[in-house]
Design goal:
With 227 residues, the chain is α/β, with parallel strands linked by helices. It is built from eight helices and seven strands, in the order αααβαβαβαβαβαββ. It has a single domain (9-226), classed as 3-Layer(aba) Sandwich (Rossmann fold). Strands 3-2-1-4-5-7-6 form a seven-stranded mixed sheet, with helices on both faces.
Length: 227
């Protein structure tokens, strides 16, 4: 069999997992989820260039969480609460989303946003390095969600996998990393991050205890279900 030849960085701009027209159509269907606070959070991300998951991935997370009757979520990296908005909607009465972020200002903004939609009571937002917060938190989870700095992805997977219940999910954002994982040559945002994501993805798909799939929406979301 001939060796697989990956494209180079010259072709990177052509790697668009979901055609923009399809993405726009799907986003148009999602207007029923419009809420003033959600729109405000999205506008803030646009103005500040803050990397949130966006509407389509948010809806996907909420749907995944509801499908397995999620009651307890741990977020590795929460920003100002955009992904927590969707998880908190899913966990219902008595559910909990444990958030982590190193910036106290992000916690303050999350509290403001989520309180205004009666979701803050479902959130336990802890300031600190996500991995440290996780180690200080006891118990099992229905979902562990990973959106930390990309160099930490393999470590987070190794920490989280054994604390996900049977039938629970590990979810991580940015696993296609703007197409870098699929090309032979690339310019990385931070040296080593692409290699870390490639390693992370391979570890998950090679794990016999999990069923895995990548949803290519936006920048790629991996979902791995513990058997």
């Amino acid at each position: 069999m001939d060796e697989l030849k990956l494209p180079t960085t010259e072709n990177l701009v052509a790697i668009v997992p979901v055609d923009p027209a399809i993405d726009a159509y799907m986003t148009g269907l999602a207007t029923h989820t419009d809420h003033p606070v959600l729109l405000e959070m999205e506008a803030l991300a646009k103005v500040n260039g803050f990397p949130i998951i966006g509407r389509l991935v948010g809806m996907f997370l909420e749907t995944q969480a509801k499908m397995i009757n999620t009651k307890r979520v741990f977020e590795f990296g929460s920003g100002y609460g955009y992904s927590a908005y969707w998880f908190a909607r899913a966990v219902g009465v008595g559910g909990q989303v444990i958030c982590s972020d190193t910036d106290p200002q992000n916690r303050s903004q999350a509290k403001q946003f989520l309180s205004s939609v009666a979701l803050w009571d479902k959130v336990d937002f802890r300031v600190g390095m996500a991995q440290d917060v996780f180690q200080q938190t006891e118990g099992m989870f229905d979902i562990c969600y990973n959106d930390v700095d990309k160099g930490g992805y393999p470590e987070v997977w190794q920490m989280a996998r054994d604390r996900i219940r049977s039938g629970g999910l590990y979810i991580a954002d940015n696993v296609l990393w703007h197409g870098r994982v699929a090309v032979e040559e690339y310019t990385d945002v931070v040296p080593g991050w692409t290699e870390a994501i490639v390693e992370h993805n391979q570890m998950i798909f090679s794990d016999p205890d999990f069923d895995a799939f990548i949803n290519p929406t936006r920048d790629g979301v991996i979902v791995a279900r513990r058997k």
